Amino acid sequence: MMLRIFFVFVALLLCGCGTPPGKPGRNAEVPTPDQVLDFQTLFEQNCAGCHGKDGDEGAAFPISNPVYLALVDQNVLRKTIAQGVPGTPMPAFAKSAGGMLTDTQIDVISSGIRSRWSKPGLLDAVKAPAYASSVSGDSDRGAVDYKTFCESCHGPGGRGGPKGSSIVDPALLSLKSDQGLRTVVIVGRPDLGAPDWRANTPGRAMSDQEVTDIVAWLSRQRPKNASHLKATNTESSNVR
What we know:
By secondary structure, the chain is an all-alpha fold. It has eleven helices and no strands.
């Protein structure tokens, strides 16, 4: 019996000699942060906290909205992720702009967003307003257009109504660029019950100029110390 116990002990000892305690096993190498190129991992680590795990149902603008992706140019989308939007909650993620991600990782995120959530040809049959305006808006006309398209939900003067919250709150407007406001006016917020530019008034879609004028009216309500946001022509991450 003792001899048998001895041989069992020796066998166990020999089996353990090949893997000293604490030594990593095969394929145990952990990639460095720069080597992570999986879209889902990068999105969850850098974007989901604001935009939600699937690009929606987060505190920020739902970037998985296919109408939004049909409007925004891929270069603009990538630039926004890389450089952020100054004056808004959207930070820069590229190392070259003070963030933590490589150019390759930025490419993975921006291309992954489009390949996963866009619907090619979605707006081919309609005349959608341009993502970014090429003309100046008229805030006086915008006040009239607001009554036509927005007041039924957001109330007189944009101060809140039965179907929508205030959209002229100084704190809100201080965090929203003009481009961010324009994006929401066009795309809407389906997650919050706000339709896109085609359905605010039944049978009467907004024109590009009407969108531009409404944004000019909203911009006029912004506190003067946040006027720098008027010149920001990239997407705000936290528009509501």
